[in-house]
Design a protein that fits this description.
Blueprint (H helix, E strand, L loop, with lengths): L1 H21 L3 E6 L2 H4 L1 H16 L3 E6 L2 H10 L6 E2 L2 E2 L3 H25 L4 E5 L6 E5 L8 E6 L2 H8 L3 E5 L1 E3 L5 E3 L2 H11 L4 E6 L17 E3 L3 H6 L7 H13 L4 E6 L5 H7 L5 E5 L1
Parallel strand pairs: 1-2, 1-11, 2-8, 5-8, 11-13, 12-14
Antiparallel strand pairs: 3-4, 6-7, 9-10, 13-14
Helix pairs in contact: 4-5, 7-9
Length: 284
């Protein structure tokens, strides 16, 4: 029993310098993938976020909701269509995206955080002109490219003790509503908030030297090394846009970014508060 107490004490002691490092600092977490559809993982993520908030870390939660959007489109008999990995979004689809992301998914997450003892407020890119965008590509319909982020409403929420939960739809220049990639939005929000860290939850262990071998995890990557890894094929496929988002965030002033495995319970705490970490860190 004494050994068990020692282990627990050592875990808390190990966390101390990280708690000091992140105290009163902003951490932006992009939430999606398997961690969003598995109920046990979802509860673990909510507990992590509430704990971080209670110990003085300013957590901003940015979320997607692809599976929920697909389910709703299927329910109304509309087929999901993708162009180069991005959802084609016509006028009917963007209405559904807005309803699902800013409505059901966003408010469900707020309620889950409240259920774990947190104080959360749901926001979307339309609130307070938080995210402004223009059309990314006519072939994609109402998919937007961010032109401006005004973080005032996020700052106000944090200063009043709330965890902002943000769905990534944006306002167009002529009253349009655009669907925004959640990774991209999280990176830009992190930059505007001068965040200490941006964390992307994914369905893989991190950046792997050999994509078929989890034992080849690359724990730290410098921004200047990214072009070489792309040339070697280490960064490829769906990892390219995630790494690009991390690089962009770092170049805009975020201290560090992490791609971590959302399939591991409490991976956020493991990454932020332990020496081991839980994925790949991209640094200047």
């Amino acid at each position: 029993m004494q050994i068990d107490y020692d282990v627990r004490a050592n875990v808390m002691v190990e966390a101390l310098p990280y708690l000091q490092e992140y105290n009163n600092k902003v951490v932006v977490i992009k939430y999606g993938g398997n961690a969003m559809t598995n109920e046990a993982l979802k509860q673990a993520v909510m507990k992590d976020i509430v704990l971080l908030s209670l110990v003085g870390i300013k957590v901003v939660l940015v979320h997607g909701g692809g599976p929920e959007i697909n389910a709703m489109l299927k329910k109304v008999g509309k087929e999901s269509k993708f162009v180069n990995g991005l959802r084609y979004t016509d006028e009917e689809t963007v209405d559904i995206v807005q309803q699902v992301l800013a409505g059901k998914v966003n408010k469900d997450l707020v309620q889950l955080l409240h259920g774990q003892g947190g104080r959360a407020v749901g926001l979307c890119g339309l609130d307070g002109n938080l995210i402004k965008a223009e059309q990314l590509d006519p072939d994609l319909g109402y998919v937007g490219e961010i032109t401006e982020v005004d973080p005032e409403i996020i700052t106000n929420a944090l200063n009043n003790g709330y965890i902002p939960v943000i769905s990534t739809i944006a306002a167009g220049p002529n009253g349009e509503v655009f669907n925004i990639n959640a990774d991209t939005a999280a990176a830009r929000i992190a930059a505007e908030m001068k965040a200490e860290n941006l964390i992307l939850l994914t369905d893989i262990k991190g950046l792997l030297e050999d994509k078929d071998d989890d034992n080849t995890l690359i724990r730290t990557v410098g921004v200047s090394y990214v072009p070489y890894l792309k040339k070697q094929g280490v960064i490829s496929g769906g990892m390219i846009p995630k790494i690009d988002c991390c690089v962009e965030a770092v170049r805009r002033g975020v201290k560090k970014t992490n791609i971590i495995d959302g399939r591991i319970p409490h991976s956020i705490l493991i990454e932020l508060l332990t020496d081991l970490g839980a994925g790949t860190m991209i640094v200047p």
